[in-house]
Structures are given as structure tokens and as C-alpha cells.
């Protein structure tokens, strides 16, 4: 496959629109099988499909380009408006997916051994990433393709704790009750909650609250869910200690625990991507994201990982999600340049 813009842009548009027409919210990634079977043959890339409905293309390698094929719910009819492609997943993450797929094809045609993955369930519980970690396979370099505004290089993501808390109390008739579980839980919620202030200050946000059985009886049980985000500068244990201290009479269950990740800005991978952008006359920027991604999970199977991808991250999950063919073309060039540089160092 050629790297020329006049050849790549029409090809990218064709593949991206085709993939966007396949609605793949988390749990329905199997619907993309025919797409990957087709591109596997067209691009001469070996295809492997896993039990999580993740798709791997290319040669077995210690260099991995990784995206995800699932999207958040809500179909958006795909369309092209003068090189701007609209559709659910155009930014997160099918636009970056196509960029990585094209880069993998170009690099393999040039004789480099590169693996590409379109993982499942990133918008839910990251089954695809967890499945990959469980194989024991390690990589020298991993580039995660979440949108980073095309010129941004993400070197840090915050961690997340999802915590369920179940409290109970003796039910009473509301006309004569001398205590109320809702009031008690509400007081505790106010004591521990913390709205986002800055990157390194943890946020503790209640997102679900259920209590009450009858209109004239105080509740016998109540459940609150907290979404906790924190950077590498915070201690997970300290955050949980605060929760346990306030809710000491309640049952606390950690339902998800993803640690934060931070990589060196001087790593070979970061520097190679920076140079790939600079070669195109683009000023790179180092950034960090408030959320989490598969980069948090996959960091344990490599010593050099980073996130870089096309697309405006502010458009993720919106009803006007769109990406330009130019952004994708820039990213393809960046991936190819960075990996060629890394492979020359390996040699």
C-alpha cells in the first residue's frame, strides 16, 4: 500500500464509512467480523479473532498498534461532508482504528513485522484488553489509538475505582420514624463527595443511588455507587480508607479497580512520535487525560507505551461525532515514521 495522500484518502474514506455503517456498541463487536475478513484479504494481513470478539491483523510482533472496535450506544448515520466523516465512532474509535490499520498495512508491505488489534469492550469493562493481558504476551512497544487531537501525545491517564456501598437500617412507619436511612446515606455522601478540581486532586462522585420500598415506610436498605478518579500522585488506599471510615456500618464492594498510568516523556516511543509529527510541520504537545483507557490496562505487558491518535477528543460520545480525512492521513504518517525509527534502533 502506498503512502501518497491522493491514494490513501479515498481508501480511508471508503473503509471508514463502511465500518461506521456497522453498529458495534459494546457487546456487539461480532457484527464487524465480515469487515475484518474482507480487509484481511484485501490488505494481505493475517486475521485472528478471539473469544472476546477482538480482531488481530498482521504478523506476530513485539510492536502493537491497538484500537477498539466497540462504541458507546446511539447510532449516527455515516456521511461524508467534504472530507469530514460523521458517524458513531468516527472519533472514538473507528477513525483511529482505520489509521492504525492503514499504517500496519504500509509497514508490513515495507517488510516490518507489526501487529494491529481492534479490541472489544473498551467502552464497558475492557474485556479485549484484559483478555490480551491474560495471554502473558509481552510487547516492546504499544501505541494505543485513542483520539488525542492529532497533535497530542497522551502520557498519563488517571485511575478509576468503582465502588458499591450497601447500607441497611430498621424500617419504620414514616409518620413516627425517628431515623431515616436516606437521610443518613445522604449525609455520608456529602461528607465524602468531591467534585473535580484539578488533575492531581481526586474526584469522588456519586453516580447511582437506590433506596425505598414503600411510600409510607422508611427504607430498610439503600445502595450508592461512587466513581472515583485519581492520578499517580494519590493513594488508592487513602481514598478507600476515607470511604470506609464514613461508611463504616455499611458493606463496601470494589467493582472495578484500574490503576493510573504515567509514562516517561523521554521514552523512545514518545520521542519517535514527536519526531513523526515534526517531520510533517506539526508541533506536538504532551498531554494527560482525566479518564481511563485501555492504556491503563495494557501498560503491564510492555515497558514502553503511549497513546496517540487522530480526532478531537471533545467530540467523543457526542451526537455530532466527526473526524477529517486529513487528521487520519497525518496520523498514518506519524505511525509509519515512528515505527520505522523504532525498528531502525532495534536493528
From TrEMBL:
Zn(2+) 1 binds at residues 68, 92, 146. Zn(2+) 2 binds at residues 92, 123, 317. Coiled coil: none annotated. GO terms for biological process: L-arginine biosynthetic process via ornithine; lysine biosynthetic process via aminoadipic acid. Pfam families: Peptidase_M20 (PF01546). PROSITE patterns: ARGE_DAPE_CPG2_1, ARGE_DAPE_CPG2_2. Gene3D superfamilies: 3.30.70.360, Zn peptidases. It catalyses: [amino-group carrier protein]-C-terminal-gamma-(L-lysyl)-L-glutamate + H2O = [amino-group carrier protein]-C-terminal-L-glutamate + L-lysine; [amino-group carrier protein]-C-terminal-gamma-(L-ornithyl)-L-glutamate + H2O = [amino-group carrier protein]-C-terminal-L-glutamate + L-ornithine. GO terms for cellular component: cytoplasm. Binds 2 Zn(2+) or Co(2+) ions per subunit. It is found in: Cytoplasm. Keywords: Amino-acid biosynthesis, Arginine biosynthesis, Cobalt, Cytoplasm, Hydrolase, Lysine biosynthesis, Metal-binding, Zinc. Its cofactor is Zn(2+); Co(2+). Catalyzes the release of L-lysine from [LysW]-gamma-L-lysine and the release of L-ornithine from [LysW]-L-ornithine. This is [LysW]-lysine/[LysW]-ornithine hydrolase. The gene is lysK.
